[in-house]
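haha ok so turns out i had the wrong file open the whole time. this is the CORRECT one, sorry everyone. sequence first:
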Amino acid sequence: MKRAILIGFVAALGLALALFGRAFRPVVFGQPMPDFSLPAIQGGAYGPAKLKGKNVLFVFPRGKVGDHWCQICHYQYAELADLEAKLGLRKTYDLEVVFVLPYGEAEVRHWAEIFPAQMAVIEGWKNPPGFDKLEGRRKDAVLRMRRFFPQAFDFGPGPAPTPFPILYDGDQAVSKMLGLFTTNWDRSAVDQNIPTIVLLNAAGDVSFKYTSQTTFDRPDAGYLVKMLDKLVLNR
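then structure:
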């Protein structure tokens, strides 16, 4: 009887692990990225297999923090869009840049539409009224914002520029498969993605991966350019 129970338990455990293994497929350095296909707000669908043959930078922003969007995510997009406009990022590195947000189409379109307002919020952090009179921690906080957001972007009054595909993962299936979607991260208990950047080489293998540890821990555009120079152009 005990033997039958033990065999049944082992079989159930094996089944559970097998199911979990199919559901959770993390990104592993040096290996192909788990494949997926998601629609873009610009139209079409994108994923690792479809983009094979090019270098691909997948950016998984944090997204919403409770009832508001993470401004750092918009700044991250602005940095890369600015590099594309000034340096021809995609042509220089034979690169596609893809943003993936863990929400439905309407919410992701909203993310793009509020781009100017998010940039204005960041500029407000950096240049509050009466800055010259601030002292102590309040002044230090403003100076930290200036160091973290050194650039000011002006893409006009419209929504976010869309040089890159912006994908929507409405049921979070891809984000969950990759182990990025969580409800507890960096002292906040809300549904969100852990900010992550993944670079695939032309063969589709992972050549760079960065998962943020805290809200303000993300590679800036300058770091990414150095990384692309080294990994793609070998210089």
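The chain has a mean pLDDT of 87.
again sry for the mixup
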